[in-house]
């Protein structure tokens, strides 16, 4: 091996070594001291000691439960009030009584017979043909009227009979019950209104009288028999049938087959 060649190898090796020194100097490695401008690294600060954990606060003692309030004793129930004794029913007031009336007024030419009870012998005589007779609120009585007069009116009479002779106008019965009329003379018309039960005796002179009924029932007419024949009793119809015939109403007595 020649010396020249070995020298060359030495230079090459030296150059590598020189570069290594440069690298170590730049990076603080190797045996070379650090560069003059590099500051030494600060020592790490010691860690602060950990604070001791706070002791837990003691739990507040539980409040004792309130004692239950004593139950108020129940109030005794009120004693029931005594039932008031029923008041005795008031005694029915006696019906008002009226004094019987049997009078004649010459100015009005009217006979008044009122509130007669159980009188079977009451009589009156017509003073003129213009006289009128007013009979009201009589019970179980018989009134006899003699002479010729204008009219007779009965109101609120029960079980009462009227016997009369000659009447110029009419005899009228209003709100009567079980009334009897006896016509011994002539009479043109007899009227019943709101009457329940009436008997009419018609003499031969009175058999042409008209009998008119309104709101009435149980009306009977008795015709005296001739000689030994019995009297004939005929009921006055209280039921009717009305038909429209040829432009007008035709009313007939209802018949039951």
What does this entry look like structurally?
By secondary structure, this protein is mainly β. The chain has a domain at 110-253: Pectate Lyase C-like, CATH 2.160.20.70. It is 10% helix and 36% strand. It has one helix spanning 3-27, and strands at residues 101-105, 110-114, 122-125, 132-136, 142-146, 148-155, 161-164, 166-174, 177-183, 189-193, 196-202, 210-214, 217-223, 232-235, 240-245, 248-253. The N and C termini lie far apart (183 Å).
Structure class: mainly beta
Beta-strand percent range: 35-45%
Low-confidence residue ranges: 1-16
Overall pLDDT confidence = 82
Give the termini distance in whole angstroms. Answer: 183 Å
The first-level CATH class name of the domain at 110-253: Mainly Beta
Q: What's the alpha carbon Rg, rounded to whole Å?
A: 72 Å
Helix percentage: under 10%
Question: Within the largest sheet, what's the order of strands?
Answer: 1-2-4-6-8-10-12
Q: Main beta sheet: strand number and arrangement?
A: 7 strands, mixed
Order of helices and strands: HEEEEEEEEEEEEEEEE
Concise structural overview:
The chain is mostly beta strands and about 260 residues long. Helices cover about 10% and strands about 35% of the residues.
Q: Which helices and strands appear, and what pairs or packs with what?
A:
Layout: H1 3-27, E1 101-105, E2 110-114, E3 122-125, E4 132-136, E5 142-146, E6 148-155, E7 161-164, E8 166-174, E9 177-183, E10 189-193, E11 196-202, E12 210-214, E13 217-223, E14 232-235, E15 240-245, E16 248-253
């Amino acid at each position: 091996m020649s010396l020249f060649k070995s020298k060359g190898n030495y230079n090459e090796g030296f150059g590598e070594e020189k570069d290594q020194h440069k690298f170590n100097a730049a990076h603080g490695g190797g045996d070379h001291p650090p560069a003059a401008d590099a500051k030494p690294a600060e020592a790490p600060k010691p860690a602060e000691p950990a604070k001791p954990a706070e002791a837990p606060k003691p739990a507040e003692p539980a409040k004792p439960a309130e004692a239950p309030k004593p139950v108020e004793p129940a109030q005794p129930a009120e004693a029931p009030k005594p039932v008031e004794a029923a008041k005795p029913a008031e005694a029915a007031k006696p019906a008002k009584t009226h004094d019987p009336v049997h009078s004649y007024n010459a100015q009005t030419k009217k006979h008044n017979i009122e509130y007669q009870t159980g009188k079977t012998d009451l009589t009156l005589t017509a003073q003129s043909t213009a006289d009128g007779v007013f009979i009201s609120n009589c019970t179980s009585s018989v009134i006899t009227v003699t002479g010729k007069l204008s009219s007779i009116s009965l109101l609120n009479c029960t079980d009462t009979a009227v016997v009369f002779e000659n009447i110029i106008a009419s005899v009228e019965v209003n709100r009567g019950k079980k009334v009897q009329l006896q016509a011994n003379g002539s009479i043109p018309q007899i009227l019943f209104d709101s009457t329940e039960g009436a008997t009419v005796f018609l003499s031969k002179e009175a058999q042409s009288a008209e009998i008119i009924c309104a709101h009435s029932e149980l009306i009977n007419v008795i015709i005296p028999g001739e000689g030994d024949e019995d009297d004939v009793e005929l009921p006055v119809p209280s039921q009717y049938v009305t038909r429209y015939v040829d432009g007008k109403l035709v009313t007939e007595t209802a018949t039951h087959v």
